[in-house]
From TrEMBL:
Signal sequence residues: none
Pfam families (alphabetical): Radical_SAM
Cofactor(s) needed by this chain: [4Fe-4S] cluster
Keyword Thylakoid annotated: no
Residue ranges of every copy of the Radical SAM core domain listed in the record: 115-245
SUPFAM superfamilies: Radical SAM enzymes
Cross-referenced InterPro entries: Aldolase_TIM, rSAM, rSAM_sf
Keywords: Iron, Iron-sulfur, Metal-binding, S-adenosyl-L-methionine
Annotated protein name in UniProt: Radical SAM domain protein
Length: 477
């Protein structure tokens, strides 16, 4: 990190400490000062969004920020803001941009990787079950990936599996060695205990997205009897210690009304979750249960509920598919992230099990330039309607063409599912969603046009007031 970046980070952290002592008074104060500094009005729209939040104690984002500042372990809070907010985005952006120009390929914001394919649970419909259970990436290989990634400007690393906490000793060791990065693990949380919480507080830059399927009935149905009780116990341990965490929920035909419900989200807030990450079921593997696929009604339900909760609940929720509009479609293939499975295969996405490259015998940058990733870069976005972002679930013909043109091979060692068979399972779902998604996209674009007109009117009024004040100062006798 450059000296300029370190100075900026130090200033930001001092302001956070200042705000934490009296957020009700000092958060609006900081924003007012920042707006005065922005004489060009370049960030007026951002201030217009943030100022009402800062001044309204009942606003859901205000409540979330105050709770986070008051209840988070100090070391974890410093790493959350310094590493996640500053290092992974602001300080490293120019490094990624230079690397993209130099190498002529996408450089992701984050890398998702599987330390192991082993897991202590056997969840129905889990895509990880298609990999060889004995596959592992050792500490040195994980360390090399992170080291090479940082040179490209990548400071965010996410673990999946298998169950990542099978390797928790190595993961804490990596977090300590790369203390300028931020790490997140998708975990079933059944291995979380007091000792785990202590280690999390010590390193500060390692958090969990805890998998849960709803309440006890829904969770134990897919994950096994007794799993729900262990998940709730883990959340209680982390909350008591001030360790940030979130929930991860897969919605499907039989649990969408539960995981998308207000009662469930309220319960997650009560348990201490700071974010919620929704995924929809994908039919991976020849024996995948296609009846689990969410219906168009259920997907629209989640689309509307997630947006509602972002306006009303003190928790940040997002939907990996339905939020495509905010990232301009699909983010895979190195555009914003990639996936490295436990065997080392570098895949475009956790749900797309095809590859031309393996990290064991290639550098990270060379895997980013593999034929399949170039196909992704050339094809993104896969649909101008960003509520239909996915090349498998929403546009299966796009994935089929990319895999065939690139010559990528299946990485599913158990059945090596061919892309024609895989995409055929998503044809009906894609066709059924198409008309509904087009209606939502039209509705959203009309809403954005109204918001933009309102913003332009506010800016014009503000500029008029500034001009009038300037004239009065000039002509004052």
């Amino acid at each position: 990190m450059s000296l300029k970046a370190r100075i900026a980070k130090s200033i930001v952290m001092s302001k956070i400490k200042y705000i934490r002592e009296d957020p009700d008074t000092r958060l609006p104060e900081i924003l007012d000062s920042a707006r005065k500094i922005d004489r060009t009005g370049r960030f007026d729209s951002a201030f217009d969004t943030l100022e009402p939040i800062a001044k309204d104690r009942n606003n859901n984002w205000n409540r979330m920020v105050r709770s986070l500042l008051a209840e988070t372990d100090p070391v974890c809070l410093e790493k959350l803001i310094g590493n996640l907010a500053i290092n992974t985005e602001l300080s490293s952006l120019h490094i990624r941009e230079r690397a993209m120009k130099k190498y002529g390929c996408n450089i992701p914001w984050a890398i998702l990787m599987d330390p192991t394919a082993a897991c202590n649970l056997h969840c129905i419909g889990c895509w990880a079950s298609e990999y060889q259970k004995t596959a592992n990436m050792d500490f040195d290989l994980l360390d090399r990936i992170i080291t090479e990634g940082k040179k490209l400007g990548i400071y965010m690393y996410i673990y999946s599996g298998g169950e990542p906490l099978v390797r928790k000793a190595d993961l804490f060791r990596l977090a300590q060695k790369h203390s300028d990065c931020y790490f997140l693990a998708f975990s079933n949380a059944t291995m979380v205990d007091e000792a785990f919480a202590e280690e999390s507080a010590r390193v500060g830059n390692f958090a969990l997205a805890i998998s849960i399927e709803g309440f006890e009935e829904e969770t134990d149905m897919r994950r096994g009897k007794g799993t729900y009780a262990k998940v709730i116990a883990a959340m209680d341990i982390l909350k008591a210690r001030g360790i940030p965490f979130g929930f991860s929920a897969c919605y499907h035909r039989y649990n969408t009304d539960v995981v998308g419900s207000e009662s469930f989200v309220d319960f997650m807030v009560e348990k201490g979750a700071r974010f919620g990450w929704y995924f929809t079921y994908m039919p991976l593997g020849r024996d995948a249960k296609t009846d689990l696929l969410a219906t168009p009604d259920q997907r629209e339900y989640m689309y509307r509920k997630v947006r509602e909760y972002r306006e009303t609940k003190p928790i940040f929720v997002l939907d990996f598919w339905n939020d495509g509009e905010y990232v301009k479609g699909c983010i895979a293939g190195g555009k914003s992230y990639l996936h490295i499975n436990a065997a080392g295969d570098v895949e475009p996405c956790a749900f797309i099990h095809y590859s031309n490259a393996n990290i064991h015998n290639m550098s990270l940058i060379d895997t980013l330039r593999q034929p399949l990733f170039r196909e992704y870069a050339a094809g993104q976005p896969f649909n101008e309607n960003h509520v239909r972002p996915c090349p498998l679930l929403d546009n299966p013909e796009k994935l089929r063409g990319m895999v065939e043109r690139s010559g990528a091979h299946s990485t599913q060692l158990l059945d090596e599912e061919d892309v024609v068979s895989l995409t055929a399972k998503c044809e009906d779902a894609a066709n059924n969603w198409s008309a509904r998604a087009d209606t939502l996209w039209k509705e959203r674009n009309e809403e954005k046009a109204r918001q933009e007109a309102e913003r332009a009117a506010r800016n014009a009024a503000r500029q008029g007031a500034k001009n009038k004040k300037t004239e009065e100062e000039i002509y004052q006798p």
